[in-house]
Amino acid sequence: MSHLGLRGVVKRYGDVTVVRQLDLDVAAGEFMVLLGESGCGKSTTLRMIAGLEEVTEGRILIGGRDVTDLHPMARDIAMVFQNYALYPHMDVERNMSFALRLARRPAAEIDARVAAAAKILNISHLLARKPRELSGGQRQRVAIGRAIVREPEVFLFDEPLSNLDAKLRGHMRAELALLHERLGKTTVYVTHDQVEAMTLASRICILDQGRIQQLGTPNEVFDRPANRFVAAFVGTPTMNFFELRMSSSGGGPRWRAEGIDWATPGWASRSALSGDAPVSVGVRPQALRPVGAAVPAHWNTLKLHVDVVEYLGTESQVVCRHVGEGGSGFAGGHRVVATVAGDAKPLLHGTHAFAFDPEDAHVFDPTSGLRLSG
Fold first, then answer.
1. Measured between alpha carbons, how far is 65 from 266 in angstroms, rounded to an integer?
2. Residue of 251, 246, 306 whose CA lies nearest to 271
3. Could you say which of 53, 132, 142, 147 would form a disulfide bridge with 78 (CB–CB 3.0 to 4.6 Å)?
4. DSSP label at 56?
5. Strand locations in 146-194, DSSP E?
6. pLDDT at residue 213 tops 70
7. Are the CB atoms for 159 and 192 separated by under 8 Å?
8. Worst-scoring range by mean pLDDT, 5-14, 269-278, 299-308?
């Protein structure tokens, strides 16, 4: 196992900067997920680590060794691609052993490594087949097996499950988690899929426009998003946002806007926020509860008109519009999504009250987007 470090890494294509001053440390044996929207620089970063893209500025270190200018074969890494990248004219055994044969490893060692990897991945019975005779999941196992037999210091995965159907993705996620636990190798995994990131990662590095927005455990990025971008990006359905103003009148700080008069979380009364300060308040759909259920009196309430109910079995997603005073102004028509129990069936096209605990709110500066507190 080796530590991986990126020091001030920059990638430009002409006048376009794709990765900007990236500093990142991946501990030995850690499973780091690079998460972000398409075009955020995550795959480019992975390809620079692999040596498939040149670094414009900065350094890449593996096990304390500067590999920035080394050939990919000299970096002691193995990469698993989105499209499998298997040789169609070779059977599974030769696909898995190809790099070892190029390195002129002894035949007995090659056979032993291929057999061990095939056993781990449950593909021993497929060694004589060609890639065209395999399913998508089997091809991905072969691609992973090809990486395992090299026994690298660092594994790199570039959206390896994106071509699989939903059921198979879930199965392969579990297999990848077990594989990492068994091998304990330093791993960098690129995805835009939040479920993959949240279920596989030791830590998640969230990127936007080539910059790190937050680096933390799955719990940290979900429960305490560093800024509004992370709050909006992490979580399904996406967080609800309200642009409000602080008010100190009426016996303590309140959040106010047309159609909204809410109590603030406890920390707000101890903070510098007061007077007429604008704030961006985020509330996750899972925090909203129908008032028909038992909710404490101090919770904040929204009057919502239900437009769509999406029944998902154990839960339902309720897509609504906030009913502001007079049905107009800031709050009127504001889209709000709530996630409720599957057996809760709000009346479609009816108006219902939903409530949330002020302590569950996330508060951000509306200008910088940074988290304020709480």
1. 49
2. 246
3. 147
4. S
5. 154-158, 186-191
6. yes
7. yes
8. 269-278
